[in-house]
Amino acid sequence: MIYARKDILGIEELTKEEIEHILDLASSLKEINERSIKKVPTLRGKTVIHLFYEPSTRTKMSFDIAAKRLSADTYSISVSTSSVVKGETFLDTVKNLEAMKPDIFVIRHSVSGVPHRIARYTKASVINAGDGSHEHPTQALLDMLTIREHKGTFDGLHVLIVGDILHSRVARSNIWGLSKLGAHVTLCGPPTLVPKELESIANVKVLYNLMEILPDADVLMVLRLQRERQKQSFLPSLREYSVLYGITNEKLKKAKPDLLIMHPGPINRGIELAPDVADGPRSVILEQVTNGVAVRMAVLYVLAQRNLP
User: Which residues bind L-aspartate (predicted)?
Assistant: First the structure.
């Protein structure tokens, strides 16, 4: 299968076949990351520019490592060192960078929709590395890869997503992807942070009582409380949230023994996850990080191959 799109902007627009193609490719590319020399010449001569206008550690580093392992030339620009601080618009910055003939832009921005807008103005491919509260497609892809490695199939799988759904681009991308692949998704958290209208998506339901649904879950995806995105207080207190929705080993006594525990990071330890849960045997959080490199290698490859000789 040849990926025909110019960009990867969100999971919502991808077909089930496109998602599975990227996951299959990522699985095959994981072997490169186990070699003593972790480099192949696949994207030699290609140029990837990382435009991160929001703080990032895992995603930015993961994309950079992925591009370099495929032998692409990479350059990173953050807002503090760009001409934006001198008054230049983001679009003008991209237009000037495009004049240098890059092949792929990897863009993270705090405003939803920015990567989509940029994609309309550039001939280069655009990868959305997270836009506001909208989507984070590569995070969802690495989550899906991790789930598939452990569970084998998505058909009939029950995935429970707990936390700040309202502000989570990770949740939105996973909701679209998991439902397309056949999983049943339940969203759980305080009513102020879990929009009821998300039930309009196939295979998705909303509940507010964690212990009512936890025993049925095959996968538990815990989200970070995104206080930096909240314009007002959505919670009485972090303590109350932790009591009702924080994941502890005591609560997990009622869960399935093979429950997978996931988190996109960074973790607010003691709030969303107890430390012994985050580091415990059911946790696959570090596997998610490992799979992030393979998924981003796959995403870079499917876009770059459109113009490979």
Answer: 86, 169, 224
228 and 142 share a domain?
Answer: yes
Q: If DSSP states are collapsed to H, E and C, what string results for the chain?
A: CCCCCCCECCCCCCCHHHHHHHHHHHHHHHHHHHCCCCCCCCCCCCEEEEEECCCCCHHHHHHHHHHHHCCCEEEEEEHHHCHHHHCCCHHHHHHHHHCCCCCEEEEEECCCCHHHHHHHHCCCEEEEEEECCCECHHHHHHHHHHHHHHHCCCCCCEEEEECCCCCCHHHHHHHHHHHHCCCEEEEECCHHHCCHHHHHCCCEEEECCHHHHHHHCCEEEECCCCHHHCCCCCCCCHHHHHHHHCECHHHHCCCCCCCEEECCCCCCECCCECHHHHCCCCECHHHHHHHHHHHHHHHHHHHHHHHCC
pLDDT in tens, 12-33: 999 999 999 999 999 999 999 9
Give me the domain span that covers residue 222.
Answer: 137-288
Residues belonging to the binding site for L-aspartate are: 86, 169, 224
pLDDT of the residue at 119: 96
Compare 241 and 228 and report the one with higher pLDDT.
241
| Overall domain count for the chain | 2
Q: Are residues 219 and 116 in the same domain?
A: no
Residues comprising the binding site for carbamoyl phosphate?
Answer: 58-59, 108, 136, 139, 265-266
- Assess whether 51 and 159 both reside in one domain: no
In a domain, 5, yes or no: no
**What pLDDT shows up at residue 307?**
59
> In terms of domains, do 144 and 131 share one?
no
Q: Which residues are annotated as a binding site?
A: 58-59, 86, 108, 136, 139, 169, 224, 265-266
Same domain? 76 vs 171? no
pLDDT tens by residue, 39-52: 999 999 999 999 99
CATH of the domain at 250: 3.40.50.1370
